[in-house]
Amino acid sequence: MIKINENYLKLQASYLFSDIARRVSTYQQANPEQNLIKLGIGDVTRALPAACVEAFHAAVDEMASDSTFRGYGPEQGYDFLREVIAREDFQARGAAIEADEIFVSDGAKCDSGNFQEIFSSDIRVAIPDPVYPVYVDTNVMAGRTGEARDGRYEGLVYLNGNSDNGFIPDLPEQPVDLIYLCFPNNPTGAMATREQLQKWVDYARENRAIILYDAAYEAFIQDDSLPHSIYELEGSREVAVEFRSFSKTAGFTGTRCAFTVVPKSCMAYTESGEAVPVHDLWNRRHTTKFNSVSYPVQRAAEAVYSPEGKGQVKELVAYYLNNARYIRENMEALGYRCIGGENSPYIWIDGKTDSWEFFDRLLNDAGVVCTPGAGFGKCGEGYIRISAFNSFENVREAMTRISNSL
Ligand code: MLT
Question: Are residues 100 and 220 in the same domain?
Fold first, then answer.
């Protein structure tokens, strides 16, 4: 008899964004005349930067001729992309990351979800709350938790975010081995300072723990005093893995390209305490289960770092940040307390009522889709998240409808 992995039965019936999409589709079927404005899932709406499109086309042309055609590429990604990433995203900021520590992939969602596989199933895992649900669900699937009770899984150490700590969680009160952090934060838009992040790095070093640092929204950081990478902090190479993505930065949500940084000096331990480089384990996993991203997509990603690409990406990010500013100002003018939207495309709004109720109100009365904070964890109850990824015209229309309906 074939048996299932019963850990899957502990999960909520569907993934948060699938659940929202289903509700939205039901609403749309019942109200076909309503022109919904979607500010829910953080999916970009503007075209790829021209430099990326040009590089993409040129690479497709190479694939059209036997003399320049390429078959399987290196699983870790082509050197041309790994080298430019290491140089521009890390070395240029004083972070000592080498090209062979970069693993190109098809998404930060997959990488941040898959990375836990290389650790023992009995490690203690710290999860911020509210949180991007992928970190929790993948640990549930892997059997690191008990059942969910009252919105939380037994066996996980939750790090509470709230208005008192500005949604920057404090260090855990009990020892943990694996820590998920995300800055600029999804969903709250909060950003940790250098000092706050350094505390986590120091904690990980003292406890021989590892930080999985999700920096998918790094390009939205505007304040020069804030760290773009965890590797700008002292001692982090030994205890941190970082996830990055071209999705939100350069409009690659549909094109798919991201990367994970695994420094060679980052160690995890055997039962007997022997240090093993995490880089070797991830490389083994990656080469077994992944064949990298297509050549044209990697060429398109490389173009993000060309002088034209840099300018175009900057313009894209500025466009969405202007939306974020507009949303935040309007929600504040309506009397709602907000965080985020300054170094992040997400605005986290204290809805002063049940999250799903507020979600339904915006959907039914304003025809605007947001994300209910409760979907990101218990501490998200009472909040909603509005995403800045849409055209300015739609954002302006959404804000007009929201202020007329509230
Ligand atoms: C979000 O809306 O939180 C993101 O788009 C989800 C993702 O990047 O997978």
Answer: yes
